[in-house]
Fold each of these.
Amino acid sequence: MLSATHTHSGPCALRLQEAGAYDEAYVEFLHVRLREAACQAMERAENCEAVNVEGHVELAVDRRKTASPHTDSRVAAIGFRREDGPFKAVIVNYAMHPVALGPGNRHISADVPGQAALALAMQLPGNPVTLITNGACGNVNPPAENVSPLQIATWGKQIADSVAERLQNAPAPVQSGLRVISRVVSLPLDSLDVDGINEYAQKALQDTKALAQWSDKYRRVVEHWRSSLIADAANGCNASHRDAELFGICIWGVFLLGVNAEVFSQFTEWLRKPANSKIYVIGYANGDAGYLSPRAAYAEGGYEVEIAHLFYGGFRFKAGSLEMLCEEAKTLLQQCQAVPSV
């Protein structure tokens, strides 16, 4: 499973309209370095025990400001501890869009996750490699945007502090083993015919809030969306479904679920209710198909369900798709628990 730590302050590695030019040179450079890192990791493998802890931090806020706000305060950490005590690596999971530096920032930065990784590595014996993964953060932002580097360092340290001491004092794991399982789920799209595309585009161009925020950039996004989808329709290529991939990793009693989309935070809570509480979602894993929002968000409206798919360049998912994916994920979790460990 590949998942990038989300930041709005890095080279453009997704083909989104009016969101920066796709940087082919950077992506190729990244591919080379990732292959090198994978080879080095295999060469430097060590025996470790994996300890897991959970902390809590009340940083993330529901950015939608609607009647159904939801955030997830849990911070998960899996620490790979050497036999003599120091840590070799740590995986952390927290649900919050890393956009604290804001659109005015023009410096490459890992935003809050980068600062959390630095702070945690400094606190743990062994100065471990620390990976911060995004939780289901499609609807949650940091407490503020356009803040200073000092502020993101403070927030990053709060995330690190919530699990650092717990990791150091974590007992040896009771369960052991590794299980991996995946499933591709075909989710329905709100596909439109040519008249429907034109009607949606005309309505979008009357969105005064979006026009005030993005002006001509937004107009170009809408017109590109309209023209490309009409061209697809003329060629008989109107998509009715899009694949969502669930990638489950069960390690020492912790279930990490990768989803190739921007998933709302409620998704994780739904998964936890009937099952083990040690379930954490990793967004943007093995791709990014766009926003997956709960049914209630469609009734409330907002950027994630009305505008975001215009930037992505396709049709949005139908209402109920996230709920459908959740049922598939529950089945996957049950299957993963039944698979013999390695």
Amino acid sequence: MRFSNYKFFNLAFLSRTNIAIIQTGLLISILLLLVSSCTVTPLSQEKKSPEKKEITAHNRQYDVWRINGRISFVNEQENWYAKFNWIQQKDDFQISFTGPLGETELQISQIDKHILLKTPSGETSSDDLEQLLFQETGWKFPVTSLRYWSQGYPDPNIAAQVKYNEQQQISDIFQAGWHIQYPKRMEVAQTSGLNVVLPKKIIATEQNVKIKLIITSWHLGES
């Protein structure tokens, strides 16, 4: 009798235990479903991240562009500062340098390989741009190479060594005795709608000559 009561007690205990286990399992399952329903957000309700400007890699050179900015030319004899406007149309160009009052101090142009230099005292033409500049101003001013340096590239017609920064942009160019550095860059809009990163500050040094360009605006293409 005691044995059967004991057996009945065990069975009742086991039944209550099994029920408790089942109830606990159901409770855990319900909790898991509730948690998963709280953490999973339907795709249609996901928050969209703010739009980012599209920036394309600067991996090409431009033939048609215009830049505005400031320039300084320093050598052993003088320190010269001016504002400048540079228009490039493939191989043709015009660079105007203006003083603090807006007067044109110097203008260099090349159209159909005809080179013309204008100053307040007159005009001079030549077929050698750098030689003409040196002759008229005494400056060692590599305009031909600056066409490429201004975009952040070495002159493709002269052997060069380059260094890159962490963004894989050219940070230093060593070419024809010049050291060109790019301390600052800026985003520039293209007609395609993408932005491209181009130089904002350029420093070119050669022995005792230092040329610094601060570009305030870039305009790419015919516009």
Amino acid sequence: MSNPFDLAGRVGVVTGANTGLGQAIAVALAEAGADIAAVGRTAPSETARAVEATGRKFLAIDADLASAAPAAHIVDTVCERLGRLDILVNNAGIIRRADALEFSEADWDAVMNVNLKSAFFLAQAAARRMVESGLGGKIINIASMLSFQGGIRVASYTASKSGLAGLTKLLANEWAPKHINVNAIAPGYFATGNTEALRKDEVRNRDILARIPAGRWGVPADLGGAAVFLASRASDYVHGAVLPVDGGWLAR
């Protein structure tokens, strides 16, 4: 029996893959056999070296996901350069912090545009191509613990990640009959640029670690297995799931 986690011959698109979680996901998919297209505003040089070291093809696409405008171009470019599109990982995201009483419209719009609006329209563009090809595909949204909880001082981030969890379920309902699996991964507290402020806050850092049964912050590589599972044939009957990878945070 063939390995159901094997991604050989597949092409995956990962947004925000230049560092952190996106980079780790891109490398994990490549290690499982997929060619990778990385989408973002910053040159993903380190990610390119890591992917190419696995023997897989790598394509960098410069795009600003602050608007939905690049979505069709991204999908067209991937299909033209790499021949197909099988996997989309909507990982790109930003965060803004301020008390809700002081939160600005600009910070609200900036986060919602990247984290939710662009994710939807990129999924739409990818799904159209997946339907056209007749091969279906896998779409993985990167949600958050704040898809389940409220948090503090990150109003637009919480709204966007809660919206992304709901959108994952809606798209799964609509696209499952079209052989497209739409699921999400909800990372717990990971050591990335987005959490640097929390890790530097002695009190918040201590309180967060005290609640994580695993006793540590996650590292980006901890997401690789979940991403490969949801991108592979092993998850063919998984639709609309939001999979926490959180060291046990939600179980506490």
Amino acid sequence: MSSDQPHHQMQIRDTTNPLVIVVSGPSGVGKDAILNRMKERKYPFLFVTTVTTRCKRKNENNGEDYHFISFAKFQELLKNNGLLESANVYGNWYGVPKEPVKEALAKGKTTIIKVDVQGAANIKKIIPNAVYIFIKPPSLEELGTRLKQRCTETDSDLSLRLKMAETEMQQIDNFDYAVLNPSNNIERAIQDILCIVTAEKCRVNTKRIIL
């Protein structure tokens, strides 16, 4: 089924036990595409927007794809303990703001955080009982094709990202779930994530997340 074909939209059962869902995976695997489609459908989650010091790409919107901030502003957030995690990736700083996550948990709302694999490992030290989902490509060759089609990296950057992806794929055992993002079938990945959320909400023994 292609992503343009009709699909069955799963309803998410709300509970008083909000989750923190951490979505990760190698660069170019399709994390943004998956989450953007979920945002469009207005699923009842808070999608946390990462802050970054890198330059905005031509197809990105400030405040939606990322909060693009100065290095000085980033350092201020770090100093004030305003970031849940931070990492330097390919020479740019990325961080997950803590306050939106705390507010969502207080309101009983499930939060979805998108980070790279290094960021997921950092968050796991702080929130070990969050749900960790690894988005994986059908193959590294397919991942390389997706990165080339994105046309946002130089040849040297592309080579670096593919080498990094090989290392990141080896970290998959540190996650709770692995979700395949097939070519031309983003719906499968979305439905798998929604099934994971539903299953986690139905757990008998859950621990309340406190930040």
